[in-house]
Please model this.
Amino acid sequence: MTTTTSTSRSPVAVDLNGADQGPDVVAEGARLSGTPVELFGGPEITNDEEPALAVRSMKDASVVRAAKAVGAGDADALVSAGATGALLAASLFHVKRIRGVHRPAIAVLVPLPGKPVLLLDAGANVDVRPEHLVQFAYMGAAFMEAVHGVARPRVGLLSVGEEPKKGTDDVVAAHQQLAAGALDFAGNVEGRDLAAGTVDVVVTDGFTGNVALKLMEGTAKTVAGAVRDAIRSGLVSSLGGLLVRGKLGALREQLDPNATGGAILLGVRRPVVVAHGSSSAEGIANAVRMARRAADERMVERTVDALAEGGAMRSAGAASVAASHD
Amino acid sequence: MTTTTSTSRSPVAVDLNGADQGPDVVAEGARLSGTPVELFGGPEITNDEEPALAVRSMKDASVVRAAKAVGAGDADALVSAGATGALLAASLFHVKRIRGVHRPAIAVLVPLPGKPVLLLDAGANVDVRPEHLVQFAYMGAAFMEAVHGVARPRVGLLSVGEEPKKGTDDVVAAHQQLAAGALDFAGNVEGRDLAAGTVDVVVTDGFTGNVALKLMEGTAKTVAGAVRDAIRSGLVSSLGGLLVRGKLGALREQLDPNATGGAILLGVRRPVVVAHGSSSAEGIANAVRMARRAADERMVERTVDALAEGGAMRSAGAASVAASHD
Model:
């Protein structure tokens, strides 16, 4: 793999398009990150376009040029706040999948207080097979190790009960493979574990993961709103509300998706960070820092090693042969 | 169907087993409900047993005898706080599916503040086909109409985006059928809609629904705990905490699953209520009241009518012929 041979630092490629607050905020965020960047402006691929078609036809689109720079080794990682579909397609075409990986997945830190929990897939693959879920587990563990310094991440498989036989046939099959693998596998975890932080990584299909992520954001918002309304609903409690305002404001910042830097696309040959469309400059800066850290900590190389050690590559023999051609 | 001919009121059958706090609390709750009940004690089928086997072999089990009483028309509805699998199996064997219904589903009111939102399936069927999802929609709408007096319930299909083409192939197929049907169909809804109460009924498979339900409970708990910790983390805010305590306590009660009475099994010939294992006497009373109301408001008959009108019966011709044999 080309990535294993790069030692000198190239900049992080940043797509200027896609942020709700415009390209200036993205440029400002990139500057704030304190790490070398290369900025890519030009035409934008939006959510209205079919991603694969648009990435093929709009060769001067900012996200396409940024992805090409990463694929060519002129940049170490990619950050974009633009349309997720376009970023995914551009990454598949130009950054490319790791050999032996079936499907890249989108991973995201659960936006709740407490220790960081990584959820994947958060929406890249609505239909998955057991071997995809198994690879997601290794990919997610490598990310938590490389980027968050978790020594031996504990990985759970999202299901409807703790017993190994609970869940769909695909989940049951993935459970068996993970139990026989090289990870610190916690077995099945349930919806409440995702919120309680009982493991470091939670693996699921992209349909359930996407629903779960949006549901956590929505639930946190609804509960926080209900707390605010309850406090404001009486004179005495309103007075109390003034006294707790500072602390609750700090909590709100903790729940702010901008703080984490966004989602990351795992399973491609360089780190690709999916920044929130709603990102502030600080949000973009965090996204760039996460991309930089993933590159510096050799996340991709660690992923390759972990998949190989766990026997989870699509075809271990084929992958090592193919790698020698890179 | 026998259910359409019953006009006089029979009691609600209540399984005394299964509540964490014991049979006395169940009996007390049944009494508190203020509606006639028939209590069933005796051997308990627990989660450790294989439900279908246990229901067949333990003929004197409380949940089996209660279900038989309902199936025989000696009781109008069934309430149990015991093992969900056993209740489901006993209901399928003795209360029986509505003719034309593929699969009964477990429906539950979303445990968040705001207007009531019904989620189904919450775990009865981990694998579903499009026609199952379509029937869940009609069953859920009939419940909200009969039991919660919602005139023309708005129904959403849980997916990963609002566009009709988003989601798994099964979800896309169900979307098409629902869009062509007789319900007030809101199209696809996302995780955040489930928490925000933008529709009255949210339809999904039992895997996603079960994960979603436990995730909401877990998220609400985590956020509420973080609010409490934030308030207690400083002197001024702790003082404020004393002043907001009353209002937040009231909110906590609103989030208490006991308040809703539990989940309901839809698609069987009489109302079957799945009370929480953690139910207090008041929780049991609410469950009995919900069962009573579903019977009085002819929920099952309305479900049959709605499925027939929407052309969503398994086989409309076969169902009406079969019904004449009842």
Summary: Confidence is low (pLDDT under 50) at residues 1-6, 316-326 of chain A. The beta strands of chain A are 12-15, 37-40, 77-80, 105-109, 118-120, 154-158, 184-189, 201-203, 263-266, 272-274.
